[in-house]
Give the backbone structure.
Amino acid sequence: MVVDLVEAQVPYSFKKRGYFYFIRHVPSDLVHHYASKKISYSLRTKSPRLATTRSLIAAVQLDEYWDKLRGGSEQIPQQHFAATDPIHSIRVRRSAVDVGPLMSDTIKLYLRRKGNNRPKTFETSLNRACKYLYETCGDKHLGDYIKKDATTFRDALFERGLNGGSVGRIFGTIKSIFTFAINESGLTINTPFINVYFDKKVGVQLRKPISIDDIKVIQRACVDRDDEMRWLVGLVSDTGLRLAEGAGLLIDDIHLDVAGLSYIEIKPHPWRRLKTESSARIVPLVGVSLWAAQRIIEENDNGFAFPRYNQDEATSANSASAALNKWIKATASDSCTMHSFRHSMRDRPRAVECPTELVDQIGGWSKSGNIGQSYGSGYSLEMMHKWLAKTIIE
């Protein structure tokens, strides 16, 4: 018999009228629990990729349940093939497409499909969101989550002390996982985590820019101390870099006196990825940031601009943030943080009437809000340097 190569590549399946069908034979020691000796149903797709995903999810569900059934469990996957529920001794009526896979199985598939070339924080945030969900509502089949679970989850997150912004991000993560599973597996379920009301402003503190007076104090202290930590503060102070962008720089990313201009090149590295696509850019060096870059080149031959924050596989931006925030709070106002420099780099260009598009280009802020901004090559290095030089604090 000639077997279709595509069909053979989709596990636990056969094709009928162009559609893929899932098929598994019930183990002989468990057949008494089922009304049929085999489980077979349509995967509702002609796509080998979708069929593979749906088939593997179904197979994992069955294998896990059969393992548990041999020692006692809770629920039968593919229950529409079962004669009875041996745990509860009742007729079962729910279909596998009604309940879907377990949340824990879904996130594993989600990470395999979407986790490639993503920073470690991507997986960390997913696992954290699901950990909170399991602790509140349990690890259920997707179709078993209801609106009550969603509102209980919301309340539990606020009880943990999370602010509205954090709760919003966690709900966004859970909704993304549900949407992915529904689309990939052809589930006939709804997402109960949409349209759940909460105030995103609860507990959120408005980050304020650093005042000009505080910037003066901090920059003078950086020049006086003149060490690696202060070079990083100085580099950020007149560029508005994200701290991780600065901390993960290579010496080769710093370009001094090229045709009379100096700049740094922000680009992704294996140890430090960028937050957004528009974050890749060049940023002119002026003022104390230029001084810091010069000191890095003069004193450092490590390869990394800041070796102390690049001793592992990933740039230790959190470690840098904790140490530097502590120092600048003690040096200037208690409200100052490293990220506040980035907020200041919105106000300082405004004060000299710098074009907004140019500020966005220097800061690597997204252009998605204005389609026109995505046209053309952007401002030249000379033009960016001209405007950024006007923001130098004397």
In short: The longest strand covers residues 19-25. Residues 97 and 223 are 65 Å apart (CA to CA).
